[in-house]
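Dear colleague,

Thank you for sharing your sequence with our group. We've completed the structure prediction you requested, and as agreed, I am returning the results in plain text so they can be pasted directly into your records. Please verify that the sequence below matches your submission; if there's any discrepancy, let me know and we will rerun it promptly.
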Amino acid sequence: MTDVQPLLGRTGAARIALIPPPVLTALNAGLIETVNLNEFLAIDLARLTAGVAAQIGLDPAHERLSDTLAMLGAFKPMKRHLHVARALYDLAASHPERDAIAHRLATHASDVARCWAAQWVMLSGLTLPNKLQAVRRFAADRHFGVREIAWMALRDELLGSLDEGLTLLQPWVLDADPNIRRFASEATRPRGVWCAQIEALKAEPWRALNLLEPLRADPSRYVQNSVANWLNDASKSQPQWVSEVCDRWLDESAAPQTRYLVRRAPRTLSKS
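Please find the predicted structure tokens below.
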């Protein structure tokens, strides 16, 4: 058994070429988590996929998986991971120990494997309330990358049922876990990053105001930045509304968290 303890707590390499071989070996074996984007991009996806498949109880040599790995080069990096997740999901669907396999993937030592588990939620036929319940563990994951995939996995679903989604996320902004609160903000950003824009919230951002109000003095900088980015997105199409919200929040709250958030929110307005 490889001792990965000396590799934990490391600082990620500034370039892929500088990643130490023992770190890369452990990443490809699914033994440790990535610590930055360079490590994520450096992973040998075919090797990691085969290893994870075997570790969770699936056949790493199955034709369905082999065909997927053979065509990964035709896709951009993030799309490759979705194809891997779908192949593993398909293999598990007919397996007699499907629930056990899903649990092993969701609790895997590799953050990349847990990202695939989060994407399984998107691929499932669950209703939106049940998908939100299922994705919650990934929204609260210890790894930043898994948390990002968690909200991206349900972005399209929330976009398609916007009013229902905003209502379902209302308890999330009151949760004790800042990661859960941040999920609600990040998943509904009008423009977002690496994802489809929500045209309805670009045109009418006030529809999500009840989601944002409880976060205006949030104690977590992680959440503050997300809400500021949300308002900055909205300012590109509804600048007057964003200005009014920021002014009102400053009038109603003397909290330093609110002042920080309001300073960051109108970045686009300040430039114009």
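Summary note from our side: The mean pLDDT is 95.

Kind regards,
the structure core
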